Amino acid sequence: MEPKPDFVNAQGVKWWRQGLLNSYLREKGAPENLSGWVAERPDGVRSYLVIDGQGVLLDDQNLETIGGKIDILAMKGWRL
Question: What is the pTM of this model?
Fold first, then answer.
């Protein structure tokens, strides 16, 4: 059984905070305004997301791939 989502938006997308992704962001020195989430569309497709206060910065359906994208951003000093 899935845990209850942290919230569901008007389009029916379910959102959960992603603890492992948030821990990795902090480990890599990400700015505090970045957070990690899992979103599930109404069709069941899930994505891992890194968002800031304005929108989605990173999006991938594979946790390892988004980890690699975080590594690249960290090497660039968190500049997009």
Answer: 0.88
